Hints:
Elements: H1 3-10, E1 14-17, H2 33-46, E2 50-54, H3 60-69, E3 78-84, H4 96-103, E4 108-114, H5 117-122, H6 128-144, E5 148-154, H7 156-162, H8 164-177, E6 181-186, H9 193-206, E7 211-215, H10 222-231, E8 236-239, H11 253-263, H12 277-288, E9 305-306, H13 309-317, E10 335-336, H14 344-351, H15 363-378, H16 386-396, E11 405-414, E12 423-432, E13 435-443, H17 446-459, E14 469-477, E15 488-495, E16 500-507, H18 510-537
Parallel strand pairs: 1-2, 1-8, 2-3, 3-4, 4-5, 5-6, 6-7, 7-8, 9-10
Antiparallel strand pairs: 11-12, 12-13, 14-15, 15-16
Helix pairs in contact: 2-3, 2-12, 6-8, 7-8, 9-10, 10-11, 13-14, 16-18, 17-18
Amino acid sequence: MKKNDTADRLASLHIFDSTLRDGAQGEGISFSVQDKLHVVRALDELGVSYIEAGNPGSNPKDLEFFREVKKIRLENARLVAFGSTRRKGIRPGEDTNLASLLAADTEDVCIFGKTWDFHVIEILRASLDENLEMIRDTMKYLREQGRTVIYDAEHYFDGYLSNPAYALSTLRAAVEGGAQCLTLCDTNGGCLPDAIREMTETVVREFGVPVGIHCHNDGGMAVANSLMAVKGGAVQVQGTLIGFGERTGNANLSTIIANLELKMGLPCLPAGKVATLTPMARRVAEIANVTMDDGMPFVGHTAFAHKAGMHIDAMTKNPKAYEHVHPDSVGNERTFLMSEVAGRSMIIEKIRKFDPAIGKDSPVAQQIVDRLKTLEHEGYQFEGAEGSFELLVRKNMGKYKPFFDLHYYKIIGEQPDADQACTAFAQIKIGVDGVDAITAGEGDGPVHALDCALRTALERFYPGVREIRLTDFKVRVLDSKSATAAKVRVLIESTDGEEVWTTVGVSSDLIEASWQALVDSFEYKLIMDVEKRFKAYL
């Protein structure tokens, strides 16, 4: 391929998201129809080229989804229905799965077929020639029905290593049948980047149709393999937005997109959309009800987090010191973690968020530093508890007004039967601007009961608290030698579907520590809501 041809090809790089199909095969992932519709909207807003929305022949839920999704007007993405080549021994027009595929009524379809001779003989139990006919017949039939056909060559790289001539013949059969794109699949996820690039280059040279790449992450190489395939000539990259999928997952598109756009200079989203990558990744994680890895490249909560004192000091002087891209470029943000090695300069930098004029010699800054040292001695740890830290700073700077006053709370536990979960009842009384509210809550344990009671009380005054969901709850004993009288530290992670924050509480009473962290969580949310309204007003 000539260099100028390569430049033209790379100008039309496409992202093919399989979160709703391949991603749905991951352990613990179960999308409702409404979930799938929400994911479609998010991916379309992000600007991916294709959304593989499921296999309409596999279950009634996918059939219902394809009916409902027609009501959504997509601005950027094209929906793709997924299926397999016809079954052996029958004509395409007799295949019920292909009939369901057509009933989904998408212009684009993605069909997978066997490429590895081992799979054809041992799994499909067909002859090698029959498999070629199945591929060719299916492509031709779908083209005759007016569909644009993407052919997914399952186990392509393993198949090529086993029998190069046969692997290529399966692709040739697909092209002869009318396939308009050949996607090479590292289905077992065991190939290495150099081999992926070399084999992709071979296919690009051999066939006159666009080539795609679909990698699984069993060897931890899915992102690297995908990028090397692009270097080898692939113009379509398949994966799932935040990498989940069967076994160890699929190629992580959030990482791939950022690298393509920011490191390789290859546009794959509409202009400016890469800057929405982080909020969209977190939005999809929330819909899927999964906890995103904090350390995920580019979009993770700690992707731009700095802890060591020397690192933080350098970052305050020049962000390039320890960041490979600016966090804003992917919609993320820089954070400085509280810890014993963080240093005074980090604390000052965080305080400047509320008052840019604060200097190292400011009495307010010294007051906050002293307060932090006292609390850390008592067992508090603000690394990873940015919500509580921000509240502490606001209180010490006089930039905080309580949203509610707690008069009391009471917990009543109920001893469960052997086959029942622990049940607790909580009663609280709060006051908001002179108006009191007394509410009760029942939950699976005292903390859940307190959460329910507090939420019920606050919703009357602040409807936004309905959006809060607790996503993690951690307890650590600080002094095990004190046995049941030991202090405990409780960390609560919460989300409103857009932001994620963590708060901390410390006490020798587990309920009290949990209550401290819980109250901070709700107060932090209320502060964020006020600031959003203020910014919108400006």
